[in-house]
Structures are given as C-alpha cells and as structure tokens.
Amino acid sequence: MFSVLLELPEFEVVNQEIFSTHYLVHVEKKMDEERCPHCGFHTRIVHDSRTRKIRDLSVLNKPLFLLVYVKRYRCQNCEEVFSSSFESVASHQRYTNRFRQFIYEQVLGTTIQDISRKYQIAYSTVERIFYSVAYEKAKDHQAVIQEIQDDQDITLSLDEIAVRKGHKYETVLYNANLGAVMGMHKNRDFDSTFKLLSLKVIHPDKVKNVVVDMWDPFHKAIRKAFPNAQIIVDKYHVVQKVTQALDQVRKKIPGLKKSRFVLLKSYENVKEKDREKLNELLETHESLAYGYFLKELFRDFYKSHDYETANQLLKEWLHLAWSSPFSSFHEVAKTIENWRIQILQYFKTPFTNGRTEGTNHKIKNIKRRAYGYRNLHRFRTRVFLECTGKTYEKWVS
C-alpha cells in the first residue's frame, strides 16, 4: 500500500486514506503533555478533543490534507482550558507553515490569479496566505536593513515612479550600497519626501551621500533631513537633458524623423553600417553637426578623471552651449549652471542611479503583472520584498 512520507516530526500518523482527488492523513501530536499559556504549568488532563482539517504540500500533484486530532487541556493550577499548540501549524490556521511558505514563494514573480488557477485554490485564499506571510517577511527584512544601518555609512538614492496616469507618483528610497529598496511614499513633493526620509532612515548622521535627479522638492527635503550629506546629481539625468536638447535641434530639420536613434547614440556605439549615414547627416546639416558636437563633448566631460579637469571642461562646454544658436541648449546650460555644484560632486563621490534605474524597471514590471494596484500598501510591500530579497538573504546568512 502507498504510504505518504509526512516529514513532520511532531506528528504521529494514525491512518492514511487515498482518494482519486486527494490524500487524507490522520495524525496526532506525539507529546501528551502541554504547557499552560496562562500560568506556565504543565498538564496532562484532557478536557475534550476535536479534529482540524489542515492543508499541506501536495504529493504526486495531488492535494494532501491532515486530519489533526487536537486535544484541549485543563490546567490543574489555574483551571483554564486551552488547546494544544503545534510547531508546524500556526494558531487558527488551516494550512501548515510550509504550505503557506510554498504559496508565498510561488506568488513571487507572478500573480495571485495565476497561482489560484494553477493549484485550484480560491483567489481570496491565495491572497490571504500570500499577504499574511508577506507582512511577516517585510518586518524581518526591515529589521535587517535597520541593523545594517547601525554598522556602516549610508549612501541613499532617491527617485520617483509613475503608478497611475495623471501624474500619480510614488517616491522610492534606495540604499545605494545594498542596491535595495528601503521604502516608498505617495507623491513626490517636499512633505511626502521628507516624511519618507524621516521614517526609513533611523540614523540621519550616518547618511554621507544622496544621489538624486534635479527635482527641487527632493533636494529641499534631503537638505532638511540630512544637512551634512553630500548631494550628487545623477549623471544619466544630466546627459539625458543634453541629448533631449539635440533632439529638439533635429526636430526643426525636416525629413530626419528616422534618424533620431542614430543621432542620440554615442559615436562609438553607432554600428558600422549606420556610421556612414551619420557622417552624411552631419556633413549635410551644419546646425545638426553643431548640436551633435555639443552632445559628444558633454559626454567627454563625464570621462574626466579628476574634479579640476571636470570643472574646467564644464566651463568650456557651458560657454559653447551659450554661444550656440539653439534655445534648447541655452535651457540646458541654465539648468546645469543652477545645479553645477551637485553635478560636479560626482567627481568627488562617483555614485550614480544606475542600479536604481534597474530596480525602477523591476517595479514597473511588478505593476504591469497585476495591471496596477488599487491597494498601494500591498504594492509597496510587494516591491519591498521582491527588491530586497537577495539583500536580506545575504545578510542573514
């Protein structure tokens, strides 16, 4: 006869039943003595008993249910009546701990609907199991991140992500050293950003650097929360402004719609077959060649090996940008002058938002999988877990 190997040491198998749709295993706890949760005394006096049907991991692709014989004890010391407790089944749960963990791990990386269909479990049940485990995991993750903050200097990264149409944003706070999400908060204004920084950073004096774009409310919140931290404007956002200025020059020249990507690429990354086309465009359109020269020259600025060289090259580039006939480059030059100190700080503390942008892409995929989230608290919990899991495992091990 087929026998199910349970691998739950606290239980003794009394009987097994095999059905066409599932397995049913009758079990009871091996220990016949319980500790009273009210006064701490041990007792063997059984008041009454009942059975609980518990879902466990499937066996050979068929659901396995445990029919648990649950004794209720009466304490001889305080006369209270209580039920026996189990290591493998939480109180008031109809699923083993390992089954809850299994469902949680299955949902990560996909949707609740998908797992509900795959294992033929009600959507609401999968949802309840997943988020009950998720909130427990989130507390553990948060505790580890706070412990890490106690031991080392912190470099933060701040960015926003659109969660709905109509300029609905979430501000996302990252630990740049760990490459992990620390928290999220609605909107991207000064008040919400300051609140996020205050809640998630327990040692403000340990924050040495913050990498951010050129959104002014972020900078004001950072200066208030961490007055001694160095603010670094992310170089990719600055380069993006310059390439957008070149694109504005291209748009004013008719017939260059299909040339956009070859112009915005760095020259060394242009494929050999496209390089001839690029050179022809630059020879034909003098204004375009000027804009392209400014774009490539700005990229050379970021290749500087020290602060003084970078400062000198930026001065020269700003002079050329202001001297150009292009209003788009004038606007960029004005923006760079306003943020000059923070842009040049990169050459003293060379941190970027590169890992942050990669995490942003992952967050967008989480949102797309579920076609958006009505409950932002659940969305934030899921982002926190899926974007800090490896960090948590590394530090716990």
TrEMBL record:
In terms of InterPro entries, this protein maps to: Transpos_ISL3, Transposase_DDE, Transposase_HTH, Transposase_Znf
Task: Output the lineage of the source organism.
Answer: Bacteria, Bacillati, Bacillota, Bacilli, Bacillales
- Domain Transposase IS204/IS1001/IS1096/IS1165 DDE, which positions? 156-383
Protein name listed in UniProt = ISL3 family transposase
**Ranges for domain Transposase IS204/IS1001/IS1096/IS1165 zinc-finger:** 34-78
Any idea where the Transposase IS204/IS1001/IS1096/IS1165 helix-turn-helix domain is? 87-132
Q: Which PANTHER family match?
A: TRANSPOSASE FOR INSERTION SEQUENCE ELEMENT IS1557 (PTHR33498)
Q: Which organism is it from?
A: Neobacillus pocheonensis
